[in-house]
């Protein structure tokens, strides 16, 4: 439910294709115009059970020391009732509501009230006002890219408090973890409901709205493409890239502080989780302008899937490794720790360099060097919804000659490293790699189905040249 990678194979467009992007986009991208029964069943399942999945994981840690099977066994054997478990669950508190309101307000202010200055002194960083991709209605939105600045300011204040100011305990997030969950759910449902009403009654751009006639699908997948308030507050960029992801590293730091408070030390496993996930978060913010060209911003509408997902699913389930290590501190052997670190760094390298090669290829229209050589390409042609023919190129060099989605492979390697840092005592910290494997495999297959329809026989030539999707020689 959060951004992970770019979509489909690396390609460049002919200069004339941009003018027809609206018709092409409506024919090939975005959420559905009509809903089949399987999609509707999937939507209803997620709307009903996703919040309970999050609650179950967090409750299992709080009441059952991170065992995923113990709560279900207790209920099945009659040793506990649902009402017993619920009675032990911390409720929403005034303190948590105040903390969460202050947090979101602070991030909104950093987003809309403080123009980016990092790009003025950080070589290679692209910040400030940047343009997004062309929307289906033919609009090019402008964004204030200042996520790295928001992250730096937030974390400088966190460390200043921890070492000098002592306004609050570094364990404050862990100590209010479940009450904050209720606050996150309130915001997630509130913003999703507001986005739906806005799409019906006062959309930012009516031509960028999609209606299926099915309430549940509209609510989950969104109606508006880019709901905005004023000139700069873009719902999609803010919720994808502010409260949840900025908080990700703070949550891990709070878990580390709690581990030290309870057990007298911060283990090397906790350090690895903090470092490896911080690399991913910093990569996201360093490349925030690049993120404007990803599937989340370019093709997804804003609904419950992004609104609630970024408020609840991301901060609560992407941080399970750190939470687990509070309850089960793991001190890895030197070889184990080194192996986890190497896997995480290698995964990040593959993820980043694959995306860099794609971006370089697109920006230069193929006039570049990939691994020191002129890139190999497959010339393709496709027809947009208005009947116009366009020419493009698919890259088959570098990482994109090894597998068709090797950026996803690197992402999965990093995800596995987070989990392996927790040892093998419980299943719970491995949820992340299981979820990411399903998510990215589904996205991979969805992208390929779309590309096959788009490019036809040219796509068959491409898959013959690069026969594997994720794992060379296997899949």
TrEMBL record:
It is an enzyme of class 1 (oxidoreductase). Its EC number is 1.3.1.21. Residues 1-11 have a biased composition (Basic and acidic residues). The chain crosses the membrane at residues 37-58, 148-168, 180-201, 306-327, 334-351, 415-440. Residues 1-20 are annotated as: Disordered. It catalyses: 5,6beta-epoxy-5beta-cholestan-3beta-ol + H2O = 5alpha-cholestane-3beta,5,6beta-triol; 5,6alpha-epoxy-5alpha-cholestan-3beta-ol + H2O = 5alpha-cholestane-3beta,5,6beta-triol; 7-dehydrodesmosterol + NADPH + H(+) = desmosterol + NADP(+); cholesterol + NADP(+) = 7-dehydrocholesterol + NADPH + H(+). It comes from the Eukaryota. Pathway: Steroid biosynthesis; cholesterol biosynthesis. It holds the Pfam family ERG4_ERG24. Keywords: Cholesterol biosynthesis, Cholesterol metabolism, Endoplasmic reticulum, Lipid biosynthesis, Lipid metabolism, Membrane, NADP, Oxidoreductase, Steroid biosynthesis, Steroid metabolism, Sterol biosynthesis, Sterol metabolism, Transmembrane, Transmembrane helix. It is found in: Endoplasmic reticulum membrane. The keyword Transcription regulation does not apply. The keyword Transcription does not apply. One of its GO terms (molecular function) is 7-dehydrocholesterol reductase activity. GO terms for biological process: brassinosteroid biosynthetic process; cholesterol biosynthetic process via lathosterol; positive regulation of ferroptosis. PANTHER family: 7-DEHYDROCHOLESTEROL REDUCTASE (PTHR21257:SF38), DELTA(14)-STEROL REDUCTASE (PTHR21257). Oxidoreductase that catalyzes the last step of the cholesterol synthesis pathway, which transforms cholesta-5,7-dien-3beta-ol (7-dehydrocholesterol,7-DHC) into cholesterol by reducing the C7-C8 double bond of its sterol core. Can also metabolize cholesta-5,7,24-trien-3beta-ol (7-dehydrodemosterol, 7-DHD) to desmosterol, which is then metabolized by the Delta(24)-sterol reductase (DHCR24) to cholesterol. Catalyzes the last step of the cholesterol synthesis pathway, which transforms cholesta-5,7-dien-3beta-ol (7-dehydrocholesterol,7-DHC) into cholesterol by reducing the C7-C8 double bond of its sterol core. Can also metabolize cholesta-5,7,24-trien-3beta-ol (7-dehydrodemosterol, 7-DHD) to desmosterol, which is then metabolized by the Delta(24)-sterol reductase (DHCR24) to cholesterol. Interacts with DHCR24; this interaction regulates DHCR7 activity. Interacts with TMEM147. Belongs to the ERG4/ERG24 family. This is 7-dehydrocholesterol reductase. It comes from Ailuropoda melanoleuca (Giant panda). The gene is DHCR7.
